[in-house]
UniProtKB/TrEMBL annotation, chain A:
Thioredoxin-like fold domain boundaries: 1-78
PANTHER family for this protein: THIOREDOXIN
Organism name: Candidatus Roizmanbacteria bacterium RIFCSPHIGHO2_01_FULL_39_8
SUPFAM superfamilies: Thioredoxin-like
Protein name: Thioredoxin-like fold domain-containing protein
UniProtKB/TrEMBL annotation, chain B:
Any Gene Ontology CC annotation: plasma membrane
Designated name of the protein: Permease
Keywords, in A-Z order: Cell membrane, Membrane, Transmembrane, Transmembrane helix
One Pfam family this sequence matches: ArsP_1
InterPro entries named among the record's database cross-references: DUF318, UPF0718_permease
First and last residue of the signal peptide: none
Coarse class of the protein's main subcellular location: membrane
Length: 83, 325
C-alpha cells in the first residue's frame, strides 16, 4: 500500500502529513508516508482531479481532500483501504 | 440596543474594577479596548465559521463546478460564481488546483475569474467583522460592491479572450473530472459536531492574527490622539486611495488581523474608503499569490488579473470616500 500526502507547500498540508504519520504509528503499521509538496504536489493534485489541497492519496487514489485534525478518521481511512 | 453591550460591561469591569485602573489612563484605555474587541471578534468568528462549515458541507467546490457546468446560464453564471466565491473560503494553496479544475471542466475563463476575484474580497472576515466594527450599512454596501467587482472583472477578462494564456501543460488532465463524488450519509446529530470541530479549527488558527491585529489597534487607540491622521489621509486628498491600494498590493496579511487595525485608523481620522482600499489590496493581491498563480497563468493573464482587481479596489475606495465624507 502506498500512502501519500499531496500538498502545495502550505502549513496545513504539512500538518496533514504529520497526522498521517501519527496514524500509521498508532496502527503499528510499517508503511512510510510519502510527502509530495511544491510544484510536484500541485501537479499531482491536478492530475488526480482534486480542486483543493491537501490530498491524502492511498494507492494513487484520493482518500481524503482537505485537512481534518482527526487521527481516528485517518486511521479508519487507512484501514478501509488496506484490503 | 447594542447586542455587544454585555461584552463592554465585562471589559469595563475587568479594567476598572478587577484591575483598579484609572479611567483616563492611556494603558487602561488600550487594555479595555483590547479585551472588548477580542471577545467580540472571537464570538463572531465562532458563529460565522460554523455557518461556513455548514455551507461547505452542502456546497463543496466540486458541486459548485457541477452547477456551473450543468446548463447554459446566459450570463447569470458570473453572478452565481461570485456568490459561490463568497461561501467558499479561499486559501492561496488551493488556488491553482481550483483554477485548473474550473477551466478544464469547461467553465469559461471569465466566470472562473469572477469566482477567484470575489473569493478573497468577500469572505468570513468581511461578513463577520464588518458588522461589529463598521455597522450593517457599510457591511452591506462593501459586500455588494465586492461581488460587483468580481462579476465585472470576470466579464472584462472574458471580453479580452485570454484563454491562450493559461499554462497548457496543466490542462491535459481534462478527462479526470468528478472523483470525490461519493459521500456517505451522516446523521444530522453527528454533523452538528463535525461542523463545530471544522469551524472551531478555523477560528483557532485565526486567533493569533486577531490578537495581533487588536493589539496593534489597541495601542493606536489608546496612545494616538483622535483625528491624528485627518490632515494627511482624509477623503479630501484624492491621491490617498491609489497610494493606499498600491502600498497594500505587494503585502499579504490576514484580513482578520487587519480589520481591527483599520477600525482604529478610521476612528482616528483616516477616511473609510482609503482604509478599505488598503485592506482589500493587502488581502486579495500579494507577491506570494502572484508567484503561485504564475505557474498556471502566463504573464499577460496574470497582469490583467492583477490590473482588473486593482482598479476594482480603487473604485471601492473612491466610492466609500464619496458617500462617507
Amino acid at each position: 500500500m502506498k500512502i501519500q500526502v499531496l500538498g502545495s507547500g502550505c502549513a496545513t498540508c504539512h500538518k496533514l502529513f504529520e497526522i498521517t504519520q501519527q496514524a500509521i504509528k498508532e496502527l503499528q503499521l510499517t508503511h512510510t508516508v510519502e510527502y509530495v509538496t511544491g510544484d510536484k504536489g500541485t501537479q499531482k493534485i491536478i492530475e488526480l482531479g482534486s480542486m483543493s489541497s491537501p490530498v491524502l492519496a492511498i494507492n494513487g487514489k484520493i482518500a481524503m481532500v482537505g485537512f481534518v485534525p482527526d487521527v481516528e478518521k485517518i486511521k479508519k481511512l487507512i484501514l478501509d483501504n488496506l484490503n | 440596543m447594542d447586542i455587544f453591550f454585555p461584552i463592554q460591561r465585562l471589559a469595563n469591569w475587568i479594567t476598572y474594577s478587577f484591575l483598579p485602573l484609572q479611567e483616563s489612563n492611556h494603558f487602561a484605555e488600550s487594555l479595555n479596548f483590547f479585551i472588548y474587541d477580542t471577545i467580540k471578534i472571537v464570538v463572531l468568528l465562532i458563529v460565522v465559521n460554523y455557518i461556513m462549515a455548514v455551507f461547505r458541507y452542502y456546497l463543496p467546490v466540486e458541486k459548485i463546478r457541477k452547477i456551473l457546468t450543468s446548463r447554459n446560464w446566459y450570463g447569470l453564471d458570473y453572478l452565481l460564481a461570485a456568490f459561490f466565491g463568497v461561501v467558499t473560503p479561499f486559501c492561496s494553496c488551493s488556488s491553482i488546483p481550483l483554477f485548473i479544475g474550473f477551466v478544464s471542466a469547461g467553465i469559461p475563463l471569465g466566470v472562473t475569474f469572477a469566482f477567484l476575484i470575489t473569493s478573497p474580497l468577500v469572505n468570513e472576515a468581511s461578513l463577520a467583522l464588518f458588522p461589529a466594527l463598521f455597522g450593517w450599512q457599510i457591511t452591506l454596501i462593501y459586500n455588494l460592491i465586492g461581488i460587483l467587482v468580481g462579476v465585472t472583472g470576470g466579464m472584462i477578462i472574458h471580453k479580452l479572450n485570454m484563454e491562450k494564456y493559461i499554462e497548457p501543460s496543466l490542462l491535459k488532465f481534462k478527462s479526470k473530472v468528478d472523483i470525490a463524488g461519493k459521500k456517505e450519509k451522516i446523521a444530522l446529530s453527528k454533523l452538528v459536531t463535525i461542523w463545530w470541530v471544522e469551524g472551531w479549527q478555523i477560528t483557532k488558527s485565526l486567533i493569533p492574527y486577531v490578537l495581533l491585529g487588536i493589539g496593534v489597534g489597541a495601542i493606536i487607540h489608546g496612545f494616538i490622539p483622535a483625528n491624528f491622521f485627518e490632515r494627511y489621509l482624509s477623503s479630501r486628498q484624492w491621491w490617498t486611495v491609489p497610494v493606499a491600494t498600491l502600498a497594500g498590493l505587494p503585502l499579504y496579511a490576514n484580513s482578520v488581523g487587519l480589520i481591527p487595525i483599520m477600525e482604529v485608523l478610521v476612528d482616528k481620522g483616516v477616511s473609510l474608503g482609503t482604509a478599505l482600499a488598503f485592506m482589500t489590496a493587502t488581502v486579495t493581491l500579494s507577491i506570494p499569490e502572484a508567484l503561485i498563480l504564475r505557474k498556471a497563468m502566463k504573464l499577460p493573464l496574470l497582469i490583467t488579473f492583477f490590473g482588473v482587481t486593482t482598479v476594482g479596489i480603487m473604485i471601492i475606495g473612491y466610492f466609500f470616500n464619496f458617500i462617507y465624507r
